[in-house]
Automatic annotation (TrEMBL):
Residues 35-179 form the Redoxin domain. It comes from Thiohalobacter thiocyanaticus. The keyword Isomerase applies. InterPro entries: Redoxin, Thioredoxin-like_sf. This is Thiol-disulfide isomerase and thioredoxins. Keywords: Isomerase. It holds the Pfam family Redoxin. GO terms for molecular function: isomerase activity; oxidoreductase activity.
Length: 183
């Protein structure tokens, strides 16, 4: 369905497959997103690797956290998981959590997209020998209220380093050389 804002001007939405307009995302093509110094938002849906809904605030509360968002359909994004695991395993008080922020085409297959994406996460965990917890966070990248717009993803992987009080220390976008990180 195509909505009109003014005669001849189309308004984008996730139903018609068009990207949101600048006005729909707060007047910017790319909203500011979460930055270092911001409180990390926890008011979004997240599911564990079995497809059970959980609470992101409980996952990160009181723990320094490296929260890595990835997309399962992009090999470089999946490869980042192993690099992060190698860099952060045994880093004392820092926990590492991986979040798949895409959805496998469950609707096309006629199955629950959360359950299908959770299945994909379990396959990646096994095939990549991932030891850290993995999650699913539904994201409608075409929606102004989608997770990627809420958090300000500019690409995946996107990694947030969050202190034990819930404030963002650093944000990394894209593949990184984690072997020499000071995080």
């Amino acid at each position: 369905m195509l909505a009109l804002a003014a005669p001849g001007t189309a308004v984008a939405d996730s139903i018609d497959g068009n990207f949101p307009t600048a006005d729909e995302v707060g007047g910017e093509v790319f909203p500011r997103g979460v930055q270092a110094g911001d409180r990390f938002p926890t008011d979004w849906d997240i599911y564990d690797a079995n497809g059970n809904k959980t609470d992101v605030s409980k996952l990160i509360k009181g723990k320094r956290t490296v929260l890595a968002f990835f997309i399962s359909a992009v090999p470089v994004s999946v490869d980042e998981l192993t690099k992060l695991q190698n860099a952060f395993t045994g880093k004392g008080d820092t926990q590492l959590l991986f979040v798949n922020s895409d959805q496998v085409g469950g609707k096309l297959l006629g199955v629950d997209p959360i359950q299908e994406t959770a299945r994909t996460v379990r396959v990646i965990k096994r095939e990549e020998n991932i030891k850290h917890p993995m999650f699913v966070a539904p994201n409608d990248a075409l929606s102004p209220t989608g997770l990627s717009n809420k958090l300000g993803f500019r690409g995946l992987p996107t990694v947030f380093v969050i202190d034990k009080n819930g404030k963002v220390e650093k944000v990394y976008v894209g593949p990184q050389d984690w072997s020499d990180t000071k995080v």
